[in-house]
Amino acid sequence: MTTPTAVTKLNTDLFIDGTWVPAQSGKTFEVINPATEEVLASVADGGAEDARAALDAAAAKQQAWAATAPRERGEILRRAYELLIERADDIAAIMTAEMGKPLAEAKGEVVYGAEFFRWFSEEAVRISGDQTLSPDGKTRFLVQRQPVGPCVLVTPWNFPLAMGTRKIGPAVAAGCTMVFKPADLTPLTSLALVEVLVEAGLPEGVLNVVNTTDPGSVVTAWMESGKARKVSFTGSTAVGKHLLGQAAQNVMRASMELGGNAPFIVFDDADLDVAVEGAMAAKMRNMGEACVAANRIYAQAGIAEEFSRRVAERMQQLKVGDGSAEGTQVGPLVERKALDKVETLVTDAIDKGAKVITGGDRPEGKGFFYNPTVLSGVSKDAELMETEIFGPVAAVIPFETEDEVITMANATPYGLAGYLFTTDVARAFRVSDAMEVGMVGLNTGMVSNPSAPFGGIKQSGLGREGGKEGIEEFLEVKLLAMPQPG
Ligand code: SIN
């Protein structure tokens, strides 16, 4: 594959105080196309000094930015939404080249990601408060909302556009300035996003971007500065815990969207067509590289065999290949390490008794590809029961009773998403109430929507992104108390 023109046109420097600048060290790093293993671009590799300059710019602009009219901020987001949609083909080509997902999915992500801007452009003008009277009638209270202040945003590689817009959208709407560190595997999509926001009219210094291969130094410089008031992170639970520790030192607000281990439960009474469709969506979206991906598929004994066979038939029909090629449905994993991890998890499951119905191997040749795989009869002690697979592997575990499956589904420290397939309404509410997760898909394999609150419980995170809850994460409550004229 040749490098997409949209990639060659990108400015790959750091973006600080409205200016593109090289890293102070002069260093750059290479971005690799996971389908070809070829170098796509070189990107400025920021360090702690660059990070401090970026946060200084954000802090200096905070007061003026907070004072802008909500409509002005909303209209910047609205323009950025429109520009993203106009440029969907170019941005999708960049995303596919650096991350691997098929072009059709990348375009889908541009629409999904852009929608966060449209949603928060509408939320910007609905920031509200309260007016109350104390119980003794002597004091009047105005409960107002103000931007929390400069924010640290750290995003992952799996949805390189949407995870950025999901944080930048509400921060802009609320009136917060930002320092932003995208994942080093996928910096290019974020650079394209910066260009869109600049063109949409985002003032200098409001958004500052530092790409780096040394996230520890960059993010620590921000967290320890005392100048940032909030951190919003999407990534692993281990890194999230570390950031929470750092946030505690300066008592910063924190939103964490961390790891998942989603149970996907299919009861005997489920509509199997719907359940198979749901499994394909919840498992195969993004080649399985999603925190909400179905990780443990529990199928009740009466349908387990038929369900596994039908999912395997669908998996076999999928076309694996370079995401930029016509008709590709499953692209490569993001890097060799990810491929090795999937291979290790599958080998371990087989060693512990699982049967391969389809897949279980990788195609010959270049690129980090893994064939769509269905494993049946996965044992409870297989490593993938406790580890996010983050690959195109459906692990089916049989169960007998409702109580048994609820216990198994909840036997994890994680609680992001869960899925439930049944036609029994009473069971649907009973099981959904009992599932220890932040989001339940009932007879659907898709829970994500910019207008709905996304987030987890237990060790899957804190706070919500999207929905009317999303902007609250970027706002502080301020009380104004005054005597009530008597
Ligand atoms: C994620 O993998 O955390 C994001 C998935 C989504 O937004 O649907």
TrEMBL record:
<dbReference type="InterPro" id="IPR016163">
    <property type="entry name" value="Ald_DH_C"/>
</dbReference>
<dbReference type="InterPro" id="IPR050740">
    <property type="entry name" value="Aldehyde_DH_Superfamily"/>
</dbReference>
<dbReference type="GO" id="GO:0036243">
    <property type="term" value="F:succinate-semialdehyde dehydrogenase (NADP+) activity"/>
</dbReference>
<dbReference type="InterPro" id="IPR016161">
    <property type="entry name" value="Ald_DH/histidinol_DH"/>
</dbReference>
<dbReference type="GO" id="GO:0102810">
    <property type="term" value="F:glutarate-semialdehyde dehydrogenase (NADP+) activity"/>
</dbReference>
<feature type="active site">
    <location>
        <position position="257"/>
    </location>
</feature>
<comment type="similarity">
    <text>Belongs to the aldehyde dehydrogenase family.</text>
</comment>
<dbReference type="GO" id="GO:0009450">
    <property type="term" value="P:gamma-aminobutyric acid catabolic process"/>
</dbReference>
<protein>
    <submittedName>
        <fullName>Succinate-semialdehyde dehydrogenase/glutarate-semialdehyde dehydrogenase</fullName>
        <ecNumber>1.2.1.16</ecNumber>
        <ecNumber>1.2.1.20</ecNumber>
        <ecNumber>1.2.1.79</ecNumber>
    </submittedName>
</protein>
<dbReference type="InterPro" id="IPR016162">
    <property type="entry name" value="Ald_DH_N"/>
</dbReference>
<feature type="domain" description="Aldehyde dehydrogenase">
    <location>
        <begin position="20"/>
        <end position="478"/>
    </location>
</feature>
<dbReference type="GO" id="GO:0004777">
    <property type="term" value="F:succinate-semialdehyde dehydrogenase (NAD+) activity"/>
</dbReference>
<dbReference type="Pfam" id="PF00171">
    <property type="entry name" value="Aldedh"/>
</dbReference>
<dbReference type="InterPro" id="IPR029510">
    <property type="entry name" value="Ald_DH_CS_GLU"/>
</dbReference>
<keyword id="KW-0560">Oxidoreductase</keyword>
<dbReference type="InterPro" id="IPR015590">
    <property type="entry name" value="Aldehyde_DH_dom"/>
</dbReference>
